[in-house]
Amino acid sequence: MTSWSWSSTGTEVVHEFEGRIRGRTFLITGPSDGGIGAETALCLASKSPSTVILAGRDRVKIQPVIDKITEINSNIKAVFVSLDLSDQFSIRAAAAEINGHFDRIDVLINNAAIMACPYGTTKDGFEVQFGTNFLGPFLLTGLLLPKLRAAGPGARIVNVSSSAHRFEGIRFEDIDFEGGTAYDTWKAYGQSKTALILMANHLARRIPSRDIASFAIHPGSIASGLQRHVDSESISDARVKSQSITDFEVADRKTLQQGCATTLFAALNPALEGDATYQVNMVLPANIPSFLDLSGLYFSDCQLKNPAIHACGAETADRLWHLGEQLLGEDFNL
User: Fold this and answer.
1) How far apart are the C-alpha atoms of 123 and 137, rounded to whole Å?
2) Distance between alpha carbon 24 and the CA centroid of its chain, in Å?
3) Residue 119 annotated to the active site
């Protein structure tokens, strides 16, 4: 039985749980070549899924991933879907395309993100990191829930969050940092990543895990295109912020293989649905009494971890969910 840790790789995860891949349909957002989304897709492709849907803004950056999947196994249906998570129109069009062409989605991996970028707004007027990293995946997930339910037992939603969620909770009274005048790049990023953890929490309490299980994860620190806005000054600022947080996880850089491992672990591991066969090498935090139902929880280094206190709690998660619905004019009626 594999021992799961910081050094675990995506290849190890898919080898261990290949029965949860074969013949299934996976949707990954933000799978540009050279990132952890692409590495996630390639690991899955090695174990014969039926379909891998690759959703992102730039087909040029994603086509190499499609080509690599075809080289691995030409029987896999690798499909590009145009998706801009900063644009409601694009999200709704992508969801309509997916709902119209596929009868089920077994696993949705909300991987796409932007990090620590200058202040700006989405096409719909939301602070750009909150809008792209949370409201975009929130809307996409809500619109695709019928296809996830259609997959039956074993369906999963995985939100790729970050240890940087510890930088900030949800600023319910000031989501957009006073219209940018009080903007802090890392706090804005932290708020958006906290939101993904709370989203998984809400989904887990409203949808039985036997239907759809939902998780949030920290992939680790990986060198990728996500850091394009991060310069030496920004790194210094993040380092100062992390030093003021007692439980902030500081670790060495991971490879792409290591970086996609926790995503795949949360997407595939039967232990997370209570299967004791696979629980041997997992360690529960002291505040989690059993493996009976782990849906809604947070993982890092292929292990359960406790998120920041501001990323916990049913009341906060419910408040955020309703805020998301209000901002987007939706009622997903879970």
Assistant:
1) 15
2) 19
3) no
All structural domains of the chain, each given as residue ranges with its CATH number in brackets, are 10-328 (3.40.50.720)
**Token pair for 105:** 């989605």
Predicted confidence (pLDDT) per residue in 230-287, tens digit? 444 555 554 545 545 555 565 679 999 999 999 999 999 998 876 656 665 667 776 6
Mean pLDDT of 309-326: 97
More confident residue, 116 or 290: 116
On the question of pLDDT at 138 being above 70, the answer is yes
Integer Cα distance of 293 and 143 in angstroms = 25
CB contact set of 273 (below 8 Å; sequence gap of 6+): 154, 209, 210, 213, 294
Q: Can you tell me the distance from the alpha carbon of 215 to that of 3, in angstroms, rounded to the nearest whole number?
A: 20
Identify whether the C-beta of residue 127 lies closer than 8 Å to the C-beta of residue 175.
yes
Length in residues, the chain: 334
- Annotated active-site residue in 183, 189, 278, 298: 183
Cβ atoms of residues 122 and 87 within 8 Å: yes
Which residue type sits at 288? I
pLDDT over 90 at 174, yes or no: yes
